[in-house]
Write a structure and sequence with these properties.
- It is a single chain.
- By secondary structure, the protein is mainly alpha-helical.
- Helices cover about 70% and strands about 0% of the residues.
- The chain has one domain.
Length: about 140
């Protein structure tokens, strides 16, 4: 039960951070990507902060064998950059740029019943299901 409470609290803090930083607004994301127009650099600061927190968290995690709640700590083993990773990153980036959403902000915005976010989340879930279905067919 304490794990579920921790997961909820971490998700809540993440969602609140997205709301406070304005990253649930697709216009903010698209403004960051509009280098030739009215460029909005605020997303760079949000991403920079996230990278710094992530670097610290991964440095700490590499020295541990358990999570803070006592579970097994499993970090990615492969550092290989292959064609599938690059194709996935390209698709993710293109979708992010066109829609102005990535999964976290889309879920937060969908919880506010924003139609564009609901459509994005539905498409995201369909893509995940298709991936699982194709993977099961192999």
């Amino acid at each position: 039960m304490s794990q579920r409470i921790s997961e909820f609290l971490v998700g809540l803090v993440f969602g609140l951070g997205l709301l406070l930083s304005g990253m649930t607004d697709p216009g903010k994301v698209q403004g960051f990507l509009d280098l030739a127009g009215a460029w909005d650099p605020s997303l760079a600061f949000v991403m920079g902060g996230a990278v710094l927190v992530g670097l610290g968290a991964f440095a700490l995690a590499r020295r541990r064998t358990q999570t803070f709640l006592g579970g097994a700590l499993q970090l990615p083993k492969s550092g290989e950059i292959d064609r599938r990773l690059l194709a996935g990153a390209l698709l993710f980036g293109a979708g992010w740029g066109l829609a102005g959403f990535c999964p976290g902000p889309a879920l937060v915005t969908a919880a506010m019943l924003e139609p564009k976010a609901l459509l994005f989340v539905a498409a995201m879930l369909a893509g995940m299901a298709l991936y699982e279905w194709k993977g099961a067919a192999r």
